[in-house]
Amino acid sequence: MIDVGTCVVLCLSLSFQSYADDVAPTPVKASVDKSPSDVSGVKAAFAALENASDWRQRRDAANRLGEIGQPALSVIRRGAKRHADDDVRDQCYSLLINHFVDDEQARETIYQHGLSDASTRIRYTCAFSLGEHKVFGAHRRLRLLMEDSEQDQLTRLAAAKSLAQLGEPDAMLFLYDGLGSDYYMSRYISNMGIKAISGKDLNDFGHDFSEGAFVSGGTELRRARRPVEDNEVRSSRYRAIADYFRWLRDDRPELFKHVNGQF
After folding, report:
1. CA separation for the pair 114, 138 (Å, rounded)
2. 190 lies in which domain range?
3. Same domain, 99 and 176
4. 103 and 79 in contact (C-beta within 8 Å)?
5. I need a surface site. Which of 45, 102, 147, 209 has the fewest CB within 10 A?
6. How do strand 219-221 and strand 214-216 relate by DSSP bridges?
7. Could you report the per-residue pLDDT of 173-213, keeping only the tens digit for each?
8. How far is CA 160 from the centre of its chain?
9. Which residues touch 129 (CB under 8 Å, ≥6 apart)?
């Protein structure tokens, strides 16, 4: 039998424990403290990026920011969203994509601001990357970009490709038009998209969709016209497109319906 004194001690002990549980602070994610050297290093690297006179200097300054890591993130995000220089913003978005894409704030900056940036290059880069990194929160913004007829074709295709990589089957309709393009980049993006959503692309149907294209610095070099050879290549391309969609119709009707009979 428990005597009265013991009972009082037990009750007080239990009451204290309950109170301690109630008032115990909720654990929070530890923040990263920036030391003076971190702040100084971030400022110096960002200043070097702003003052760079050519692409090599911009690249080197951006690499230094990336090496600093998390302490530089807020400065990089601010530069991506607000800096007046297209080249500085471009490097900031590249850093967010290549170094910080697992950070939710970095992801939001890419799709909330990058997809509506004034620079076509930045919009394209961000649209292309979001599907590669499976940023599912970007669905709505990517769809708005894909459906915006005032955007350039490659950016809209990049948005459609990323939507396909995020499992959106109706992006097939937009990718369909890119498959037949005479421009390699349009074919490349479109084939990436259909491969992501269906598991096959034109290469699986006997046609190398690169068609010997050469791209340098983002610019596709065009060969001299060759009336016979060019149209033989086109014939091969369109046969492969027909074979692909014949397979899609027979084996993947749930995807084919998004393309067949659509305006």
Report:
1. 11
2. 168-263
3. no
4. no
5. 102
6. antiparallel
7. 999 999 999 999 999 999 999 999 999 999 999 999 999 88
8. 12
9. 97, 101, 110, 162
